């Protein structure tokens, strides 16, 4: 392609750009003056760095348009006045602008001449645009590699302390970090293959010298730098390509960012967004699993401990709810839950499952006995199935609750109460035998007759010991640190501790009672006297035992609890037993996640307990504030006791009973929320004129003065008879009433409704992610029964089994003996799941080849699938953005408009000339070839500045073209004049002479442009006529010289006549 065609295209492009219109289309004189005089306070015009010379402006403009010729000519200036590293007002260098135009030829030339800082800035810009080819071109260039090697010697900390902030990117942003933030896996792989990596920031609590220096230098910059680093580290592309175990890297990175989100509250939302991004990446990886083998590897391997489901347990410990609730993971867990022996339950309906469980319950004791004797038989396999373990342990827990209820309600004891010897012959108790009557009387009179440890209590003791043995095994297997971090385990251990303390106190009390009974021999003698019906001597014996002279030995002989001490061991035992019973029955909710209907309710209940805990902080503050205020107001009256006469009896009551102390004030305020405190309770009682007052007892056991009832002064208003005495407490009562009313408003109207709103919000949150929350809770429950051990339920687990003895002997042998196979490998092989065994059995039946695939191979598969998925998503996005998929370099025919100057006409063919086009110019102008059409009598199609479009790439370029070297100088002069014109316009606010020069330059440039177009038009006509002449010469015989000379003169005259005609038309149009 010739310079003639190339510059014609560039001129048309300049006309289409806004800068060209600013340089040529000036408009009215007022508009010209306004545009030529920028504000003195303009931001960018005051920067010395952007005061470019005309040559630099032409150089940057050519780089942005991809003009190789002008860029090369500017770089080859002999005087060296051009600064190749110059930037525009936005800080963009020539390479930056060339990347926007995506001209590879210009980019290659500029990389050879610019310094490393400019190249690095342009590289970051290319990464941000996603220009993969340009990024590869830059990083493989020798200049960039040499500068990169020099830059590595400065270290990473140099970028943090860099004070120059001229780049559009922070100084800590490296190319790999930027590529990772944009999640461009192709560019990330380029840098990873060049041994680039992202350094993980130090911990937020790190106190090393480097962290302390950065914190003291700029705390905000350090926080932003850490956030930028974690944005790159959390990139799915970077994690997939840089880590051998992306899922493990995701979990660990999420834990770090969770801590950062809690510490750096200012960037909490950003870190939470990164947490969600990492979680989605892990879910996408497991979603790409195509079979059970891959899912099993993801949830089991990669931890190095040889324990099945170790990865899943880590996910639960890290609260990776979406990962655990993923369908692939849940399907694998469901298969393991039912096992091969109970898999038929999975296909049964709910009612059939319930019917099977009811029929299965009576068989549990026999299955337990069979497992103890023959653990490796079919019943043993059934007992080891997780769903069977769940059923047996749930049944054991229900039996334990039934025993607790029986012990609490004393169902094994008789409800008959005989307190004296005279009641023995009472006709009411005629249905009882003499033994029952004697036993009932002894229980009511002597404490040793009451049996503390009944058969039900002994069964409970065995159950508690079995539960304690389970907890000890879990503590041994998981470790103390992991055990105490699970609050459910702490609750179980606390309940068992209370039960143990309760029964220890019972045993202690039983021992002291037996010791006292042996001292007096009271129970044996009393029983004989009652059988002999010697009631007189029986009563004398009771008086002797309970005589004060036998204290304190006879304390444990007293049967009535009204005579016991408040801290009696049996009372304390009952208190602990009662609290433990409440928690035991409440702990039954741990079974609810196994059912889809009850699971979300249990999760909502747990979330609401957290809301109540947060509410109690504010409630306690408000309660304490009013408690202190009201007690300070009523402290004197609460301590005073006044004399009152009730039914001719003298009693003493407090003047302000509701506020007689801090404890009573607290009780009054607390129970007033539930309407248990009346407004009359806050009034102050006054002593009568004589020092005492008459009173009566009304409903609820309240005492009220008769004067208040007679005068209906239930609201504490003074009566006429005692106006002088009761007026002294008017202010106290009024202020107290206002404070009490304000307390009710704040507590009941504000705080209680706030608590209700918090609970409703928590319930709605659970319902939003109901399926995820329930599946996560169900998986936590299932994992408790999928581990090895704890097969037998309580109390069968207390029976030593041959299997337990064998495992103990094997463990000791493996620890002491030296063998090639370690105990860990043996344990890992023993834990091989039935799924793998079943798969191997099917492969053997079908004669399929079984290939052992390692965990790393499976992870590589998943990463490749993820990268392909990213490519498909990228292509779909580009297709939607472009409107038509895979439409690249589409070329359209050019049409003519009437409001633009005539463009250069193009011929259909080229005539070879002696001067060939240069190869690099052909490459640079390949994208702007036009289909040239001409001929005698044919209609020519002209180019339009507003509708310029590329011509079809199917037209092959001709090898040689017409070259006019003067056009380069004309175009360069045109651009220089344009730049000078803009420069003059920017500095001609108050100089009319310069404005006139601008007008003159404008006219000169307009005329120059028109002349240039005329020349181009004439040259096109000449080229067409030359083509016609060649055709004529090839088709007609060779005439004589005179005839040919006449024809050529005629043609020249015709062409000159056409030129004069066109010039006259242009002059007329100008006028």
TrEMBL record:
Membrane disposition:
Multi-pass membrane protein
Taxonomic superkingdom: Eukaryota
Q: Which keywords fit this entry according to its UniProt record?
A: ANK repeat, Ion channel, Ion transport, Membrane, Repeat, Transmembrane, Transmembrane helix, Transport
Its cellular-component GO annotations read: cation channel complex; plasma membrane
Where is it predominantly found? membrane
**InterPro entries named among the record's database cross-references:** Ankyrin_rpt, Ankyrin_rpt-contain_sf, Ion_trans_dom, TRP_dom, TRPC_channel
Task: Identify a single GO molecular function assigned to this protein.
Answer: store-operated calcium channel activity
Q: Which residues cross the membrane?
A: 354-374, 394-412, 452-470, 490-508, 612-637, 735-759
User: Could you confirm whether the keyword Transmembrane appears in this record?
Assistant: yes
Protein location? Membrane
Q: Where in this protein does the record put region Disordered?
A: 1038-1071
Q: In which residue ranges is the amino acid composition biased (Low complexity)?
A: 1045-1055
Gene Ontology biological process terms in this record: regulation of cytosolic calcium ion concentration
Q: Where do the Transient receptor ion channel domain residues begin and end?
A: 206-268
This protein is called Short transient receptor potential channel 3-like isoform X1
* Source organism: Crassostrea virginica (Eastern oyster)
Gene symbol here is: LOC111122008
């Amino acid at each position: 392609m010739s310079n003639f065609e190339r510059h014609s295209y560039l001129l048309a492009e300049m006309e289409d750009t806004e800068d060209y219109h600013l340089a040529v289309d000036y408009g009215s004189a007022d508009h010209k003056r306004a545009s030529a005089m920028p504000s003195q306070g303009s931001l960018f015009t005051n920067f010395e760095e952007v005061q470019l010379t005309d040559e630099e402006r032409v150089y940057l403009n050519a780089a942005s348009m991809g003009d190789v010729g002008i860029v090369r000519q500017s770089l080859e200036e002999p005087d060296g006045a051009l600064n190749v590293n110059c930037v525009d007002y936005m800080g963009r260098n020539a390479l930056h602008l060339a990347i926007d135009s995506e001209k590879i030829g210009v980019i290659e030339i500029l990389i050879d001449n610019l310094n490393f800082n400019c190249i690095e800035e342009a590289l970051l810009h290319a990464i941000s645009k996603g220009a993969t080819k340009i990024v590869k071109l830059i990083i493989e260039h020798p200049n960039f590699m040499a500068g990169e090697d020099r830059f590595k010697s400065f270290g990473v900390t140099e970028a943090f302390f860099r004070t120059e902030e001229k780049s559009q990117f922070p100084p800590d942003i490296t190319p790999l970090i930027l590529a990772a933030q944009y999640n461009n896996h192709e560019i990330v792989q380029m840098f990873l293959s060049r041994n680039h990596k992202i350094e993980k920031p130090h911990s937020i609590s790190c106190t090393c010298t480097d962290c302390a220096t950065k914190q003291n230098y700029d705390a905000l910059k350090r926080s932003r730098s850490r956030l930028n680093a974690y944005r790159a580290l959390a990139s799915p592309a970077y994690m997939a390509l840089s880590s051998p175990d992306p899922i493990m890297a995701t979990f660990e990175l999420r834990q770090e960012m969770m801590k950062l989100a809690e510490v750096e509250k200012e960037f909490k939302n950003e870190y939470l967004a990164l947490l969600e991004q990492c979680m989605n990446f892990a879910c996408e990886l497991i979603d790409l699993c195509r079979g059970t083998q891959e899912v099993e590897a993801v949830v089991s391997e990669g931890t190095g401990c040889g324990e099945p489901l170790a990865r899943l347990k880590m996910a639960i410990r890290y609260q990776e709810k979406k990962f655990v609730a993923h369908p692939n993971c849940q399907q694998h867990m469901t298969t393991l839950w039912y096992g091969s022996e109970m898999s038929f339950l999975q296909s049964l309906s709910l009612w059939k499952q319930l019917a099977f469980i009811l029929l299965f319950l009576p068989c549990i004791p026999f299955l337990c006995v069979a497992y103890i004797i023959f653990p490796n038989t079919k019943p043993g396999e059934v007992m080891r199935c997780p769903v069977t373990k769940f059923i047996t342990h749930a049944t054991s827990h229900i039996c334990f609750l039934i025993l607790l209820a029986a012990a609490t309600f004393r169902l094994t004891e008789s409800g008959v109460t005989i307190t004296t010897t005279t009641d023995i012959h009472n006709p009411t108790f005629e249905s009882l035998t003499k033994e029952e009557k004697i036993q009932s009387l002894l229980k009511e009179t002597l404490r040793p007759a009451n049996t503390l440890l009944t058969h039900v209590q002994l069964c409970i003791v065995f159950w508690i010991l079995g539960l304690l043995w389970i907890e000890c095994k879990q503590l041994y297997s998981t470790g103390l640190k992991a055990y105490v971090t699970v609050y459910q385990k702490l609750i179980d251990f606390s309940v068992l501790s209370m039960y143990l303390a309760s029964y220890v106190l019972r045993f202690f009390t039983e021992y002291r009672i037996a010791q006292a009974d042996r001292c007096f021999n009271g129970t044996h003698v009393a029983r004989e006297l009652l059988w002999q019906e010697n009631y007189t001597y029986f009563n004398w014996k009771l008086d002797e035992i309970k005589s004060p002279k036998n204290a304190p030995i006879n304390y444990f002989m007293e049967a009535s609890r009204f005579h016991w001490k408040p801290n009696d061991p049996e009372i304390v035992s009952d208190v602990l037993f009662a609290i433990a019973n409440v928690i035991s029955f409440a702990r039954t909710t741990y079974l609810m996640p196994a059912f889809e209907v009850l699971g979300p309710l249990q999760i909502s209940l747990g979330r609401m307990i957290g809301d109540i805990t947060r509410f109690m902080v504010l409630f306690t503050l408000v309660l304490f504030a009013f408690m202190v205020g009201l007690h300070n107001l009523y402290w004197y009256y609460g301590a005073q006791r006044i004399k009152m006469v009730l039914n001719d009896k003298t009693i003493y009551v407090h003047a302000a009973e509701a506020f007689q102390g801090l404890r009573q004030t607290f009780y009054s305020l607390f129970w007033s929320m539930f309407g248990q405190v009346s407004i009359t309770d806050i009034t102050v009682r006054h002593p009568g004129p004589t020092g005492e007052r008459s009173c009566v007892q009304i409903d609820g056991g309240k005492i009220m003065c008769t004067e208040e009832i007679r005068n209906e002064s239930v609201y504490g208003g003074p009566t006429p008879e005692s106006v002088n005495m009761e007026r002294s407490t008017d202010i106290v009562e009024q202020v107290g009433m206002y404070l009490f009313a304000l307390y009710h408003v704040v507590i009941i109207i504000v705080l209680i409704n706030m608590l209700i709103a918090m609970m409703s919000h928590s319930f709605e949150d659970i319902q939003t992610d109901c399926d995820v929350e329930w599946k996560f809770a169900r998986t936590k429950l299932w994992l408790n029964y999928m581990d090895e051990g704890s097969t037998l339920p309580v109390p069968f687990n207390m029976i030593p089994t041959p299997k337990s003895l064998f495992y103990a002997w094997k463990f000791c042998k493996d620890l002491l003996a030296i063998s090639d196979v370690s105990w860990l490998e043996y344990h890992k092989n023993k834990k091989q799941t039935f799924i793998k065994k079943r798969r191997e059995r099917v492969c053997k039946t079908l004669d399929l080849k079984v290939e052992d695939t390692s965990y790393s191979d499976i992870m590589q598969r998943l990463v490749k699938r993820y990268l392909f998925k990213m490519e498909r998503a990228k292509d779909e996005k580009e297709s939607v953005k472009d409107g038509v998929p895979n439409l690249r370099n589409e070329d359209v025919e050019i049409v003519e408009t009437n409001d633009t100057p005539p463009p250069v006409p193009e011929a259909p063919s080229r005539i070879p000339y002696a001067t060939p086009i240069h190869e690099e110019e052909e490459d640079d102008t390949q994208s702007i070839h036009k289909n040239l059409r001409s001929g005698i009598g044919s209609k020519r199609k002209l180019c339009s500045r507003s509708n310029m479009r590329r011509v079809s790439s199917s037209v092959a370029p001709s090898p040689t073209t017409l070259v006019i070297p003067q056009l380069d100088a004309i175009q360069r002069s045109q651009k220089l004049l344009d730049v000078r014109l803009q420069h003059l316009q920017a500095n001609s606010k108050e100089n009319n002479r310069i404005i006139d020069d601008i007008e003159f330059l404008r006219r000169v440039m307009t005329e120059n442009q028109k002349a240039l177009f005329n020349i181009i038009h004439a040259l096109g006509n000449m080229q067409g006529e030359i083509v016609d002449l060649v055709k004529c010469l090839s088709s007609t015989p060779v005439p004589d010289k005179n005839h040919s000379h006449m024809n050529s003169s005629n043609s020249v005259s015709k062409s000159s006549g056409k030129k004069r005609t066109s010039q006259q038309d242009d002059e007329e149009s100008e006028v």
